[in-house]
Amino acid sequence: MKRLAATLLLCLATSYELGATSYELQANSYELLTAGEEREKDGDTAQRKEKVVNFGLKGGFTSSLFLVNDLSMGSVCMDEFQNKYRIGYFVSLFLRINFGHYFLQPEASYNVNRSSLTFIFPENVNTSTATAGQEVFIETDIHSFDVPILFGWNIIKEHPYSLAIVGGPKLRYIWGKKSKTNFNNLSRQQISEQLRPFNLGLSVGVAVTIHPVFFDCRYDIGLNNISKRVVYEFPEGATAAGNEPHIRFAHRDNVLSFSLGILF
């Protein structure tokens, strides 16, 4: 009987220990499940925070070049010329509206784009504007207000990191009073270019974000001729000679830009 009682007591003790261990395992499992749910809630909260509207400020530098459709002086057409990159700058404010992996980004920016073009006036051709064999420089400083409307797609989006491609149309207003075109080394002085105030373009690019800082690289393509006309400004009392050649300079400027900004 004593042995039976001892055996029963041993079985009861073992059963109690197993029950206690099971309870501890259940408690640990509950704690892990609770922690997982809390992390999931925190992730959902962070995801919700990423979907709010963001404001941003950025600035950077530009490098632009001419795309020339027509460069001629009277009947003399310039076919061979050299584009030279010149550095400009810009500042921009923007609004980013997020839709999951997509976003809409309207911007407003002030740009100063600079370009340079060099060509040799054809041999054996002399006009009142240029001399045969002379090297001519055309340089522009274009001040403009740009309004691109961009659509973006986040190829990678793991808060706070993202990689996106962007693209969209751009409306451009050229500030004529601040912009200027210089025609250097021409015999005829006081030549000026009148630019079209309103122009259209297309922007495409890539943006990398490490929230709240981001970096983007963009290429802006001009869609229309920005030159309205090239005119002579004769000194007071002078009159135009009958053989003054008409200068045609139809061109677009394509711009490569790099910027660094911050999201609020």
Q: What's the assembly state of these chains? A: single chain
Could you please say which CATH topology of the largest domain applies here?
Porin
Total helix count? Answer: 1
- List low-pLDDT spans: none
Round the Cα radius of gyration to an integer and report it.
34 Å
N to C succession of SSEs: HEEEEEEEEEEEE
C-alpha termini separation: 81 Å
Strand tally: 12
**Name of the top-level CATH class of the largest domain:** Mainly Beta
> What count of domains describes the coordinates?
2
The CATH architecture term of the largest domain is: Beta Barrel
Kindly state the mean pLDDT as a whole number? 81
Task: Please describe what this structure looks like.
By secondary structure, the chain is of the alpha+beta class. It has 2 domains: 1-50; 52-263, Porin (Beta Barrel), CATH 2.40.160. 19% of the residues lie in helices and 58% in strands. It is built from 1 helix and 12 strands, in the order αββββββββββββ. Strands 1-3-4-5-6-9-10-12 form an 8-stranded antiparallel beta barrel. Strands 8-11 form a two-stranded antiparallel ribbon. It starts with a helix and ends with a strand. 21% of the residues are buried. The model has no long low-confidence stretch (mean pLDDT 81).
